[in-house]
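Duplicate of #3305? Posting structure anyway:
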C-alpha cells in the first residue's frame, strides 16, 4: 500500500519546464527590450536632429562695456556644434570666455531653440607687469590681456610682481594707499620683486623701499614712517610731500631723503 502511494505521489508531481522553453522565453524578453531601447534611441535621435530644435538665437545679458551682442555672436556662433539638446554648454562657455574682456560666461538652454548667455566683463583697476607688457589687473586681482586703447580711463596705478602673486599685490596696494593718503602722498605703483621685497612708487616721483614681509609686517614699518614723517620733514623746513625716497628696511629706523635735504634719522622713529 505504501509503495503504491509513493508511486502515485511521484506521478502527481509537476514537471519543470524544459530548458529550451526557458531559453526561448529569456530570448524573447531580451529581444523585446532591445527593440524598445532602439525605438527610444531612434526617437531621441530624430528629436535631436529635427530642424525645430536647431539653435536659432542667442541672447546676451550682463553689464557689457567692451563687447556687444553682435561681436559676441560673430566670435562664438561659428564654433557651436549640435542642436538645442546636443550642444556642449561647457565648450560654448569656453568660447565666450575666450573673447577679449570677457571674464566669465554662464550659458543656459532656453527651450526650444535658444541659448541665454550671462556675461561678466573684466573690470580693470591697474596696469600689470612691465610697461611693454599690455596686461591689466581686474578688481579680483586676476591678470588679463587687453587693448589699452579700449580703456575707459588711463588713470590707473601700475602694479607688478609674479603673476601667481597678483591678488596679493593688489591687496597690499589697497592697504597701503590710505596710509599714505593721510600725508597727501598718492601711491600709484607697487612692485613685489622676485626676492619678495616690496617697493612703492608715488605720483610725485618718490620711491620707498618697504622691505620683505607679510601685510602686517610691512604696515608696521609704514606706520612708523607715516607717524613721524611730518615731524621729521618739518624739522628740515619741508612738507611731507617733499619726500623723495625712503628705505624702511632698517631695524630701528628708516633712511629718508627730502628734496634738497638728505639725512639718516633713527631717533624719531623709536
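Output from current build:
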Amino acid at each position: 500500500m505504501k509503495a503504491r502511494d509513493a508511486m502515485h505521489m511521484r506521478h502527481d508531481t509537476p514537471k519543470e519546464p524544459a530548458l529550451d522553453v526557458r531559453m526561448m522565453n529569456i530570448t524573447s524578453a531580451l529581444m523585446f527590450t532591445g527593440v524598445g531601447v532602439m525605438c527610444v534611441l531612434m526617437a531621441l535621435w530624430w528629436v535631436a536632429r529635427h530642424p525645430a530644435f536647431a539653435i536659432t538665437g542667442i541672447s546676451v545679458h550682463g553689464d557689457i562695456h567692451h563687447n556687444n551682442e553682435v561681436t559676441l555672436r560673430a566670435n562664438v556662433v561659428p564654433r557651436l556644434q549640435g542642436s538645442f539638446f546636443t550642444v556642449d554648454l561647457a565648450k560654448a562657455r569656453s568660447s565666450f570666455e575666450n573673447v577679449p574682456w570677457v571674464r566669465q560666461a554662464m550659458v543656459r538652454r532656453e527651450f526650444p531653440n535658444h541659448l541665454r548667455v550671462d556675461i561678466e566683463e573684466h573690470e580693470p583697476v591697474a596696469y600689470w607687469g612691465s610697461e611693454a607688457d599690455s596686461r591689466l589687473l581686474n578688481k579680483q586681482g586676476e591678470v588679463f590681456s587687453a587693448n589699452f586703447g579700449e580703456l575707459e580711463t588711463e588713470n590707473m596705478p601700475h602694479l607688478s610682481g609674479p603673476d601667481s602673486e597678483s591678488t596679493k599685490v593688489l591687496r597690499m596696494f589697497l592697504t597701503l594707499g590710505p596710509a599714505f593718503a593721510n600725508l597727501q602722498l598718492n601711491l600709484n605703483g607697487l612692485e613685489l620683486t622676485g626676492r619678495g621685497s616690496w617697493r612703492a612708487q608715488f605720483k610725485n616721483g618718490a620711491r620707498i623701499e618697504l622691505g620683505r614681509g607679510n601685510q602686517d609686517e610691512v604696515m608696521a614699518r609704514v606706520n612708523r614712517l607715516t607717524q613721524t614723517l611730518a615731524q621729521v620733514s618739518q624739522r628740515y623746513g619741508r612738507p611731507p610731500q617733499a619726500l623723495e625716497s625712503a628705505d624702511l628696511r632698517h631695524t630701528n629706523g628708516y633712511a629718508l631723503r627730502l628734496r634738497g635735504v638728505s639725512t639718516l634719522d633713527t631717533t624719531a622713529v623709536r
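Confirmed duplicate; merging threads. Residues 124-265 form a domain with the Rossmann fold fold (CATH 3.40.50.11690). The two ends are 123 Å apart (CA to CA).
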